[in-house]
Glyoxylate reductase/hydroxypyruvate reductase
Amino acid sequence: MVKPKVYVTRKMNEEAMAILEKDCDVISWSGTDPVPRAELLKNIEQVDGLYCVLTDKIDKNVLDVAKNLKVISTMSVGYDHLDINEIKKRGIKVGYTPETLTDATAELTVGLLLATCRRLIEANAAAKGGKWQTWSPFWMCGTSLKNATVGFFGFGRIGQEIARRLKTFKTKEILYTSRNAKPEAAEIGALKVDFENLLAKSDFLIVCCSFNESTRGKFNLDAFKKMKKNAVFINSSRGGVVNQDDLVIALKDKLIWGAGLDVTTPEPLPIDHALFKFENCVILPHIGSAAIDCRMEMAALTAENIVTALRGEPMPSELKF
């Protein structure tokens, strides 16, 4: 019996590959960097399944070449790199990994928030650079979560888990803005507000929404001007939600106190970018889900999505559209 063909766009762990190789004929890009576009197009003409990651743009050009494609499985919760309209036209199934990275991303976001508001990166650099002279009453003081109002732009699984963790810091209130009221909000003690109130009232404003045309550039100069001067802005969603030129102005003009970013546009952010020049801006290289157990689970689920779809069985985690 001829095995279905699967193309894997990045070097994967042995466990995930073993899941695929049991039932499929697997071809993979062996590099740790993104697969070159020409290489991808050269190898996908006859494949039945595509195992991809968020750096792979799967658009009409790719889909036109991959004429036998039956399933795409992405090792991510976000799917803005997939042309869903074109995929839907072709009746191709899509798998993704939403549940697996919730806790890891929530943990990282809390860490990023603390690193920003308590100036941890700046303090570490000061210690290494010989600026640590003696204990001083107000040196390296930051802002505290205690008695603070924390706002969430987007309050899905990840936002809710961040909120649960932050409540242990004795925050005053949790606010959120989303399209629909969340049933879980009552248990967390979160209050739904409109966007204007979220901006005006939040001491810490955390972005953890999905990225689409309605959220693109949502945080621009107008939004930053409406925030508190002592506000800390955190983004662990997608870089495109923020107008980065406007964020530079907001930090330069002290419209907000500081910013912590795990996502940027582009990625990687050029090392000469203006945001790197601010001591009150902490930038991480998109490591929200970068916990070993999380990435292993994501990789395995991505493989299982493909194998089950090609067997004609229900996928463990199918994107419904």
About this structure: The chain has a mean pLDDT of 96. Residues 174 and 183 are 14 Å apart (CA to CA). The first strand starts at residue 5 and ends at 8. The radius of gyration is 22 Å.
